[in-house]
């Protein structure tokens, strides 16, 4: 899989960018704050429809356009070629009129091959794996960040997961709203039956997809971790679903949905007392353990970085094995963070895919001796020049 053309209009630091890309490795050099991360994040957003950096949609729009244009907007367009053929993905982010207090919101629109579509139709047309210095947050950050990581990873090759996640989030809001009403002694407990059924149906798809993905990622990452410089340590990546103990070991069982539904119904009264849904994938987590100890608590920064790198390398394998077509690799200024052994492992993986985009503040790292066939660019104040 590869991105053959990228077009950006009023996207963060880019007022206008048109870039044609071939197979192989592309190195983009530029000073800090030149827009290197913005470029790779735009490519990642074409794959997942969501910024890997978080924030709201308004943050995507170029500041100058936001200040000067009456209805400012950002536009991202990418042409993709893969085993399934070619596709053109387009995302438009349009700011609305300012509210009375001066705030404004933005809306997103999607097109696939020029036709208006839903986000779920666009996700996965391009698949990427993005390595960045922020990957440590996967290990040491919050459970919500790890759930977001799972969503961004699995959604690129599992359309059913995308639809289930969208449905689950809508149902969860409705169910929690009803729970708060019931807590005020307004309504009947049986009113939860419909929302319970919808929640369990969508939740089952999510839980089982996460269990399968993390089984693959966990085994692969455990095998890679010792080769990355820690031969005497063992990494374990474990799925921690927010379910009753008796269900945790049965996530892939044929009767899991039925048992999940029974547990949800049995917990209705407790949910009403708390005014919130207590079990389900919205509270899932991932455990990273090194030699049996939680990496988020006891591991050094170097150990956490090695674990995160092993996970990202495993993500490349998962995406390739699942689809038969390797993803595009995005390496965002990671070479300054990695030692020689880690860089070699990343580049070994890079040569196994069709296309790699690398950003660096130092045009000589990685140098021509390391990547003699790379296409090189200089990025200056939002202008990209091929060297």
Task: Summarize the structure in words.
The strands form three sheets. The protein has a six-stranded antiparallel beta sheet. A six-stranded mixed beta sheet has the order 8-12-13-3-14-15, with helices on both faces. The chain has a three-stranded antiparallel beta sheet with strand order 9-10-11. A hairpin with a 2-residue loop joins strand 1 (2-11) and strand 2 (14-20). It folds into two domains: 1-126 and 329-387, P-loop containing nucleotide triphosphate hydrolases (Rossmann fold, 3-Layer(aba) Sandwich); 128-324, Glutathione S-transferase Yfyf (Class Pi), Chain A, domain 2, CATH 1.20.1050. Helix 6 (159-183) packs across helix 7 (192-224). The chain has 13 helices and 15 strands. It has helices spanning 36-48, 63-68, 119-122, 136-140, 143-154, 159-183, 192-224, 245-248, 256-266, 268-274, 295-298, 301-323, 340-350, and strands at residues 2-11, 14-20, 24-29, 73-82, 85-95, 106-112, 115-117, 128-132, 235-240, 285-290, 293-294, 328-332, 355-360, 375-380, 383-386. By secondary structure, it is α/β, with parallel strands linked by helices.
């Amino acid at each position: 899989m590869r991105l053959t053309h990228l077009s950006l209009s009023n996207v963060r630091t880019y007022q206008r960018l048109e870039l044609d890309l071939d197979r192989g490795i592309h190195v983009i050099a530029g000073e800090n704050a030149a827009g290197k991360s913005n470029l790779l994040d735009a490519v990642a957003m074409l794959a997942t429809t969501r910024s890997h950096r978080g924030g709201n949609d308004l943050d995507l729009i170029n500041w100058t356009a936001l200040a000067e244009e009456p209805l400012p907007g950002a536009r991202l367009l990418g042409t993709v070629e893969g085993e399934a053929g070619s596709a053109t993905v387009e995302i438009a982010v349009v700011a609305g009129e300012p509210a009375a207090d001066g705030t404004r919101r933005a809306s997103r629109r999607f097109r696939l091959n020029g036709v208006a579509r839903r986000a779920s139709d666009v996700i996965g047309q391009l698949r990427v794996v993005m390595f960045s210095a922020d990957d440590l947050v996967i290990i040491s950050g919050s459970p919500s960040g790890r759930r977001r990581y799972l969503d961004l990873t699995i959604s690129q090759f599992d359309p059913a997961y995308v639809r289930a996640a969208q449905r689950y989030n809508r149902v969860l809001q409705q169910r929690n709203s009803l729970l708060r009403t019931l807590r005020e002694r307004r309504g009947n407990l049986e009113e939860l039956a419909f929302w319970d059924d919808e929640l369990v149906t969508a939740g089952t798809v999510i839980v089982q997809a996460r269990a399968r993905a993390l089984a693959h990622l966990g085994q692969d990452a455990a095998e890679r971790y010792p080769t990355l410089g820690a031969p005497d340590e063992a990494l374990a990546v474990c799925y921690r679903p927010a379910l009753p103990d008796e269900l945790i070991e049965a996530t892939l069982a044929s009767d899991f949905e039925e048992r999940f539904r029974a547990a949800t119904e049995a917990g209705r009264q407790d949910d009403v007392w708390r005014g919130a849904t207590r079990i389900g994938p919205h509270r899932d987590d991932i455990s990273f353990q090194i030699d049996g100890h939680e990496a988020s608590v006891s591991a050094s920064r170097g150990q956490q970085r090695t674990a995160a790198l092993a996970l990202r390398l495993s993500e490349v394998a998962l995406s390739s094995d699942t689809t038969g077509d390797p993803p595009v690799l995005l390496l965002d200024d990671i070479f300054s963070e990695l030692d020689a052994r880690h860089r070699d492992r990343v580049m070994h993986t890079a040569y196994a895919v069709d296309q790699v985009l690398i950003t660096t503040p130092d045009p000589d790292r990685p140098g021509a001796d390391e990547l003699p066939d790379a296409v090189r660019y200089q990025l200056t104040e939002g202008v990209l020049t091929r060297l």
